[in-house]
Amino acid sequence: MSEPVAEPAATVAAEALLEVEGLSAFYGKARALDDVNFRMEHESIAIVGRNGMGKTTLCNAIMGISPPSATGSIRFAGRELVGGQSHRIARQGIGYVPQGRRLFPSLTVDEHLRIASRGAGGGDGGQGWNRDRVYDLFPRLAERKRNGGAQLSGGEQQMLAIGRALVTNPRLIVMDEPSEGLAPAIIENMVETFQQLERDGLAILLIEQNLGVATALAERQLIMVAGSIAAETTATALAADSELQRRYLGVEPLAH
Q1: How far apart are CA 189 and CA 160, in angstroms?
Q2: Residue 96 CB neighbours (<10 A)
Q3: Residue 85: how many CB atoms within 10 A of its CB?
């Protein structure tokens, strides 16, 4: 009788989708990130913190947007990103929804999506995203496809910024303050969209000040203070701990 095949050792860790180790970032001589460390698998996590804590700097460092200059390591699916060019990083399979949307006022909705589709480098996200699927996800964009970026409402602009990232077929999407400036009803619809994307297999790194959005989307919560990850907790624990919310985030407790 043949010997049974040995199972792989349980101690061998699965490769992280995104792994950040010893990351520091600088604007000139000013340190904006200080020894940031975290890893994420094929999941969604939220990084929360007050203004000025380094959250957007972290996004810029991941996406290779300069400034800042960065030291340490950022690996996506095992590939080092530090020192890489932003367009090459995006083509590896990371979609980015920047704070403030950053749309082109003179380009129509459809032109934004066409250009982003052309720039996709095959991130192998396996999701099959194209303009038609974005229009299915956001019917309002289909109605406004010939309107310029400056003619859209805040909610429509955020839909377009998300759609622009999706047509690159990412494995991971980084969203920086997506709820900023939006009405509560729009935020509620946006959270439902994020939850649907996660169910479809897309990993999301959410950067947020809005605890309601952060805790609705991701169970893992990283708290950023003064350029470092000060604590890791869960959505359940964070929502229930008013002292933690006040101490790290300076906010009034979430309503239950």
Answers
A1: 14
A2: 24
A3: 12
* 5 belongs to a structural domain: no
pLDDT, tens digit (0-9, with 9 covering 90-100), for 165-205: 999 999 999 999 999 889 999 999 999 999 999 998 999 99
Domain count, the chain: 1
How is residue 137 annotated by DSSP?
A: H
- Which residue, among 65, 58, 63, has the nearest Cα to 25 in the 3D structure? 58
Q: What is the CATH number for 104? A: 3.40.50.300
User: Does 9 fall in a domain?
Assistant: no
Q: In the chain, count H helices and then E strands.
A: 10, 10
pTM of the model: 0.86
Dihedral of CA atoms 215, 15, 117, 183 in degrees, nearest 10, equals 10
12 domain-assigned: no
Residues sharing a CB contact under 8 Å with residue 230, sequence separation 6 or more, in sequence order: 223, 224, 248
- Burial state string for 155-180 with b = 16 or more CB within 10 A and e = fewer than 16: bbbbbbbbbbbbbbbbbbbbbbbbbe
Cβ proximity of 95 and 168 under 8 Å: yes
Domain boundaries, position 55 = 18-249
210 found inside a domain: yes
